[in-house]
Amino acid sequence: MSKVQLVRDIMTKELSTLDHTGRLLDAVLLMRSSGFRHLPVVNGDKLVGLVSDRDVHRAAPSIFGKITQEEYNRIFETTPITKVMTREPVTVTPDTPVRDVVHLMHERKFGSMPVVEGDNKLVGLITTTDLLGILHEMLGKP
Length: 142
Known about the structure:
Blueprint: H1 7-10, E1 18-19, H2 24-34, E2 38-43, E3 46-52, H3 53-59, H4 69-78, H5 81-84, E4 86-87, H6 98-108, E5 112-117, E6 121-127, H7 128-139
Parallel strand pairs: 1-2
Antiparallel strand pairs: 2-3, 3-4, 5-6
């Protein structure tokens, strides 16, 4: 009988997070420097939102519109992350079975899910990349 894998076994624990007072520019710079496409937004150690690279792209003005470079930059510098992020994202706990996460992420088309404990304390993030790691192990490395 195989052991049920839990979120705690595969979640990403070393996270890059964005403070809830941050701006759109902060998210862009952190995504570039960290390589992460999803950033939990926190107030202290409490999860208050999630911002993805898609959210950033949706919030960015078109460079083909009638907008100057200065206006384009100003939008990134002044737009609060709270205006762009997903508030109260769907979360899981470290003890959630991985199969339940796979079902949720597939059904809802999520690229990631924050992992929280207790009173919404952020402890990790589970991503499609984490799940692909399990699949890679199951199929056998080439």
